[in-house]
Amino acid sequence: MTEAEIQELRALLEDVNRVRRTLRHAETRHSDRIEAVLPRHRDSARNLIHYTELRRHDIRDLQSGLAKHGLSSLGRTESRVLPSIDTVARTLTRLVAADGDSDAEAEFLDGEELLARNAVNLLGPEPEERGTRIMVTLPGEAAAEPDIVHDMMERGMDLARINCAHDAPGTWRQMIDNIRAAENATGKRCLVSMDLAGPKLRTGPIRPGPRVLRIKPARNETGIVTAPARVWLGHPPETGAVLPVIPLQDENWAAALREGQSVSFEDARGARRTLVVDRAGPDGCLALLHDTSYFVPGTRLAAVPETPSGKKSHPKAWPSTAVGDLPALEQSLTIRRGDTIILSSDLSPADSHTAGTHRIGCTLPGVFADVKTGERIWFDDGKIGGVITGVRAGELTAEIISAAPRGSRLRAEKGINLPDTRLTVPALTEQDLANLEHVKELADIVSMSFVRSEADVRDLLARLDPVQDRDLDIMLKIETVAAFEALPEILLELMKWADVGVMIARGDLAVEAGFERLAEVQEEILWLCEAAHVPVIWATQVLDTLARTGLPSRAEVTDAAMAQRAECVMLNKGPFINEAISMLADILGRMQDHTQKKRSLLRRLRAWDR
Asked: Does 104 score more than 50 pLDDT?
C-alpha cells in the first residue's frame, strides 16, 4: 500500500474507534435500564442501546471510506452492532500494521439466532415452506362456522387474530374452540392473538335518513336493462349470497308464491312495478325486478293469481302483504376544503344537511383538554384533514385544508387522528381491563393498541402476574407518531416480559406520520426491532384488494413481497380471504430465497439459463 492509503486507513481506524467509544459510553449511561430487563433479553437491550446511539450520528462518510477499501460499510449491523464495528476496527488495525488494540477484540453476539429464537417463542415455529408466518383476522362468522377456520389453516394461517372491539366473550371462546378443533384435524398449531381496542377516538352519530330500500337493475351505457335486479322476499336466505332482503309483515305470505308468478306493487314514488318469482322456498322467495323501485315500510305487495282461463280477478282480491321494517339509510356530512368542522363532546346525532360549517360529536371527550390551536387533525384514515383553529371546553374548531375536489363524505364511527397532540388519556380503558381477564384465559398473545410511551407498557405489565400470566405473550401495536418516537424506551420497558413483539399498524401510522413518510417509518421500525431482536408483525391492507374483491392490485403484490422481511404478516378479513392467504404464502415462500431483512441473498437464478 502507498503511504497515502495507509494514512486513509489510519484516519478510518480513528473514526471507527471514536464510534466504538461513543457506543460504550451510551451503554454505561443506560446500564440501569439494561439491568432492569429480564436476563434473557440483556444482550438484546445492550444491542438496542448501541444501535440507537449509532443512528444518532451521521456516518455516511465513514461508510464510503470503508467501502472504498473493500471493508464492511456497516450497513447491516442491526442485529450485532458493536461486534460488527469491533471486527472492522480489528481489520483496520491489522491493515495499518499498528500495535494490537486489546479494545478492538470482537465480542460474540449471534443476533440473528436471538431474533429467530424470540420469533419462535412468540409466533410459533417457522412453516416448512417459508420463514415468515401468516396471521389472519377472524370474522365473527368463524364462531358459528368451524369450516372457516379449518379452511384458513389449510391455506396457510399460522396465527389467528381476534379483535376484542367486536363481538363478545362467548363468541371469542367459540372461535377459539373452533381453532383447537381445526388443530386436531390438520395436525397444525395455530396461536391466538387477541387485541385490546384501546380508547376509541371516533366521530359521533349522525341523524339517520329515511327507511327506504332502493333496488335497481343493471343497465348499459344507453340505459337499457342488461340484467334484472335480484331480491329476496321474506327471511334472509342461508346460502351466503349477497342479496337485498325485503322483510314482510306476513311471514307466511311468500311461502305460497310459485315460480313465474308476478307480484304487483306501487313503490314509494307511486310508480307501478312488478316482481317475478324466480325461485320459491319455505322461508321466502327469490324475485326479479326489471325497473328501479323504492320500497318503504308498509309498501303493499300483491300476488297476481294464476288463472288458467285467462280471466283476472280484481286486484283488491289478490293475496297481499306489506313490507316490514327497513333499516334507516346511513347519512353523512359532505366536507369540502375551506369548510369548518366543530368537534364536540356532545354525542347528540349530527344534522347531515349542513354546508360550510358542520358539527359532529367525538367519542373521546378527554382529548379536548390536550389539543391546541395550530395542531393537525385527520378524519377517516386521512381522507379529510384540517388544522385546529379554536379550542374551548368540550369543543374544538378545525378548518379543513384537505378533502376530495368534489367533497368527501364523513360518516359516523370514523377514526380521528391528532398526530401533533400529546394525548394524556390512558391506553387501557375500563373495557380493555375487563376484556384482559378473558384474554388471559383464552389467548396466547395479548395485543395492546394505542401505545404511546413506556408508561403505557408499564401499565400493562402491572396488570399481569409474572407467575400466573407468564404464558401470555405481549404484542404492541405501533400506530402513533408518539410511539414511533419513543420506540427505544418502549422496547426496553417491554423487555421486562419474556416473549414480546411489535406490530407495525400501518393504517393509523400512515395518517399520523404522513403517507409520503410511511415507507421510511416502517423501515426504521424494522431496523430498530431487529437491533432489539424483537419479532415484527407487518400489518394493515396487505393484499387487501384481493381479500375484498378477489383480484390483487400490482402494488399490493409488491408490498406483500416486501413484508417477507418481517417475522409475521397480518391479513385482514374479507370474502376472498382464503385466496389472499394462498397467494401470500406463495409470495413469502418465493421471496425467502432472495432477501433476509436488508440483505439480498444471491441464490442461483435460472431466469437467464440458455
From this structure: no
